[in-house]
């Protein structure tokens, strides 16, 4: 029940942040939400509660990504498929590799698999952040379509990287073949579910 109340309170803060943004449009919604989150942690007792990652993804991430996916220009995404593929898959894996090595060099006490897990959590860009940025900054249409497509697709590569980095951290083993198969299944599953819904 404690987690349910906290979720309701957070959803109320999201609603309040949108209302406040109507009155003060100069301040980006994410900044308003950060301030409201700080106020929640200071003035309430909701300093800690258990919330499973699956429940969090279902409650918060899925609706946000679905909303961005519905509003995106599909034909423009297909035209920019080469750039989107390069940014959302190749660049994410390269970023995870380089950033993981850098984090391990920076903090030698952290296991290499833990460094890669942290890098995988940081590597993918956020689709919602791209949309929020586009509202404040004028971005060329071609670049905007590329950024939108990349931010929607790169979650699969980021999740696979994170999943196998954590598995390597816990078990001490890593399989590139299993990681590749998992990535293909996640990607095809997302496409299939999207086609069924639309």
From TrEMBL:
<keyword id="KW-0812">Transmembrane</keyword>
<dbReference type="GO" id="GO:0005886">
    <property type="term" value="C:plasma membrane"/>
</dbReference>
<protein>
    <recommendedName>
        <fullName>Cation/H+ exchanger transmembrane domain-containing protein</fullName>
    </recommendedName>
</protein>
<dbReference type="GO" id="GO:0051453">
    <property type="term" value="P:regulation of intracellular pH"/>
</dbReference>
<keyword id="KW-1133">Transmembrane helix</keyword>
<dbReference type="InterPro" id="IPR006153">
    <property type="entry name" value="Cation/H_exchanger_TM"/>
</dbReference>
<feature type="transmembrane region" description="Helical">
    <location>
        <begin position="55"/>
        <end position="72"/>
    </location>
</feature>
<dbReference type="Pfam" id="PF00999">
    <property type="entry name" value="Na_H_Exchanger"/>
</dbReference>
<dbReference type="GO" id="GO:0015386">
    <property type="term" value="F:potassium:proton antiporter activity"/>
</dbReference>
<dbReference type="GO" id="GO:0015385">
    <property type="term" value="F:sodium:proton antiporter activity"/>
</dbReference>
<dbReference type="InterPro" id="IPR018422">
    <property type="entry name" value="Cation/H_exchanger_CPA1"/>
</dbReference>
<dbReference type="GO" id="GO:0098719">
    <property type="term" value="P:sodium ion import across plasma membrane"/>
</dbReference>
<feature type="domain" description="Cation/H+ exchanger transmembrane">
    <location>
        <begin position="17"/>
        <end position="196"/>
    </location>
</feature>
<keyword id="KW-1003">Cell membrane</keyword>
<feature type="transmembrane region" description="Helical">
    <location>
        <begin position="84"/>
        <end position="107"/>
    </location>
</feature>
<feature type="transmembrane region" description="Helical">
    <location>
        <begin position="31"/>
        <end position="49"/>
    </location>
</feature>
<keyword id="KW-0472">Membrane</keyword>
<keyword id="KW-0739">Sodium transport</keyword>
<keyword id="KW-0406">Ion transport</keyword>
<feature type="transmembrane region" description="Helical">
    <location>
        <begin position="113"/>
        <end position="132"/>
    </location>
</feature>
<keyword id="KW-0915">Sodium</keyword>
<keyword id="KW-0813">Transport</keyword>
């Amino acid at each position: 029940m404690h987690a349910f109340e906290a979720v309701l309170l957070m959803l109320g803060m999201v609603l309040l942040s949108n209302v406040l943004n109507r009155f003060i449009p100069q301040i980006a919604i994410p900044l308003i939400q950060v301030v409201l989150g700080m106020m929640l942690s200071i003035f309430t007792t909701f300093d800690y509660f258990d919330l499973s990652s699956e429940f969090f993804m279902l409650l918060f991430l899925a609706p946000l990504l679905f909303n961005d996916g519905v509003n995106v220009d599909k034909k423009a995404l297909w035209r920019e498929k080469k750039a989107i593929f390069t940014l959302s898959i190749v660049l994410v894996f390269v970023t995870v590799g380089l950033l993981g090595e850098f984090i391990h060099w920076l903090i030698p006490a952290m296991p290499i698999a833990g460094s890669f897990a942290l890098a995988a959590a940081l590597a993918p860009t956020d689709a919602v952040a791209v949309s929020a940025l586009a509202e404040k900054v004028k971005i060329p249409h071609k670049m905007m379509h590329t950024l939108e497509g990349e931010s929607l697709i790169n979650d699969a590569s980021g999740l696979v990287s994170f999943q196998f980095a954590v598995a390597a951290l816990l078990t001490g083993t890593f399989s590139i073949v299993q990681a590749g198969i998992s990535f293909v299944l996640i990607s095809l599953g997302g496409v299939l579910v999207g086609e069924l819904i639309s």
